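Narrative of accomplishments. A recurring question from our advisory board has been how the design workflow behaves on a single, concrete structure rather than in aggregate. To address it, we present the structure tokens for one chain from the evaluation set, followed by the sequence designed for it. No filtering or post-editing was applied between the two.
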């Protein structure tokens, strides 16, 4: 019917057919799909149309794992969610990503890629992408550059860029005019109420910053608020089920995954015409509008199966040369860049300012060298083709999201994120880089100048999380091995579903948004079918 500011609602109770928590890519897709068939939808969003630090601060938590993970900077709490600030890079998962793979524990989805194919095609339109074709041939052209690879050794993987990217802006008018959708902003879910057996959700408790309390009731409830917050809400709603809803087998929050990204060095082309190709992202500020796609290099599925490897993809990003060198990724350099980034984007600083300051002081030589190279780049720009690698992180039950001791403004426990990677996950990247090195030498394409610097963790200093939170409410038909079933319904709770990448059993190497939207469409179809059956 309209947009509502929960802080100004007169009603203390709101009823709908379906209540969706979170207005990001998954939540907006679900609302559009379900409401279009006559059901009344309440879409509940903690944030506002504009970014607000106060709402964003509810994401604050503690990182106790890899990569200096900042929970407050890794997602956006506003209408449109993290689609309001992303590159729009999209690709479906590969068929192998859905398989139970030998050598990769806990792998396998409860259905194949074929099951998701029609939903991917619908998601392609919702994400404002080009033709649903990810085979390399249609995207190659004379204008794409002379760099040609042997697909028998290095397969070419196509990504497309969503444009426009912001679901909040693009679908705002439609949602505001749909008579079956009510969007509630500044509405913070603080508890999932269940019956005495925790087998049925009876309502959601909502709180606002001006101390309003509202209760939402519905036939069906969906959590669509991200891989960390989905787990947090389930764990914190523990008044009836002491370990949290859906956590009867201690699985909620486990198997937390993200895509590790590495800048592994740079490429020196042997010939000038190799400098521009489909494998290059020229400028992230121009993707979608000017650059509609890019390609990456990857090992083929036969190699992955034969050698029991996790997947990896590498493409090139044009950036200043100094941003590919070891001092840029040193502890001092990373802390310096982190603080500059916080100031530039007016974001919340994390709780590790002192550590960043210590890194800058103790690493003053690296920071000084970095500043010198930055100034030199201003006087004489030296662009390079950085090797951007993205790795499939395989499932690890000890990588997890838990509740900490600290509380937020509404008394909810803040999270602790312990991101861990399996030691064998390094092998996929090493094998791909070695294959690239050999092929570039054999074909006389140029040199890969690699950055081998590693930190105390044994992982490259350049490693950063892609902010793709996956796996914490993983999907499996067996409740002892998953939090939700193949229809994304929480095991043991008849009317509670989870949407988004938290249900991914494995995450491949591709950005998750297209798959998030495809799964949301599939879930919407399931919910519509149930609602029709109940009404019959």
């Amino acid at each position: 019917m309209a947009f509502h500011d929960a802080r100004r609602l007169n009603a203390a109770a709101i009823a709908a057919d379906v209540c969706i928590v979170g207005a990001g890519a998954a939540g907006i897709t679900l609302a559009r799909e379900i409401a279009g068939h006559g059901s009344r939808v309440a879409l509940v969003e903690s944030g506002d149309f504009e970014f607000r630090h106060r709402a964003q601060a509810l994401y604050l938590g503690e990182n106790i794992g890899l990569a200096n993970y900042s929970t407050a900077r890794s997602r956006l709490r506003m209408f449109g969610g993290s689609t309001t600030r992303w590159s729009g890079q999209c690709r479906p998962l590969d068929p192998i990503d859905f398989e139970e793979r030998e050598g990769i524990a806990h792998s396998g989805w409860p259905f194949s890629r074929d099951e998701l194919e029609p939903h991917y095609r619908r998601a392609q339109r919702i994400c404002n992408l080009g033709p649903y074709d990810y085979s390399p041939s249609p995207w190659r052209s004379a204008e794409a550059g002379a760099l040609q690879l042997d697909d028998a050794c290095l397969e070419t993987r196509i990504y497309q860029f969503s444009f426009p990217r912001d679901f909040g802006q693009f679908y705002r008018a439609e949602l505001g005019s749909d008579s079956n959708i009510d969007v509630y902003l500044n509405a913070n879910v603080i508890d999932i109420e269940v019956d005495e057996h925790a087998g049925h959700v009876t309502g959601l408790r909502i709180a606002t910053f001006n101390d309003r309390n509202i209760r939402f009731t519905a036939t069906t409830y969906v959590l669509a608020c991200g891989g960390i917050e989905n787990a947090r809400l389930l764990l914190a709603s523990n008044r009836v089920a002491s370990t949290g809803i859906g956590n009867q087998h201690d699985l909620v929050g486990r198997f937390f995954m993200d895509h590790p990204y590495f800048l592994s060095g740079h490429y020196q082309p042997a010939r000038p015409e190799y400098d521009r190709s489909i494998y290059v992202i020229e400028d992230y500020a121009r993707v979608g509008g000017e650059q509609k796609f890019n390609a990456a290099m990857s090992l083929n599925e036969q190699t992955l199966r034969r050698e029991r490897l996790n997947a990896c993809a590498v493409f090139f990003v044009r950036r200043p040369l100094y941003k590919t060198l070891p001092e840029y990724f040193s502890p001092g350099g990373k802390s310096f860049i982190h603080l500059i980034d916080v100031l530039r984007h007016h974001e919340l600083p994390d709780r590790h300012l002192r550590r960043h300051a210590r890194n800058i002081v103790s690493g003053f030589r690296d920071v000084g060298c970095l500043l010198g190279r930055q100034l030199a780049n201003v006087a004489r720009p030296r662009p390079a083709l950085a090797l951007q690698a993205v790795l499939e992180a395989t499932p690890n039950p000890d990588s997890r999201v838990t509740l900490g001791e600290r509380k937020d403004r509404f008394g909810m426990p803040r999270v602790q994120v312990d991101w861990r990677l399996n030691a064998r996950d390094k092998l996929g990247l090493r094998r791909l880089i070695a294959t690239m090195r050999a092929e570039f030498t054999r074909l006389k394409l140029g040199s890969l100048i690699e950055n081998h610097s590693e930190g105390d963790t044994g992982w490259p200093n350049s490693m950063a999380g892609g902010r793709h939170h996956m796996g914490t409410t993983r999907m499996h038909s067996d409740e002892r091995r998953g939090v939700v079933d193949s229809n994304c319904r929480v095991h043991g709770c008849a009317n509670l579903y989870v949407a988004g990448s938290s249900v991914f059993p494995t995450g491949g190497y591709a950005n998750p948004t297209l798959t998030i939207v495809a799964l949301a469409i599939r879930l919407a179809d399931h919910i519509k079918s149930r609602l029709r059956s109940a009404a019959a």
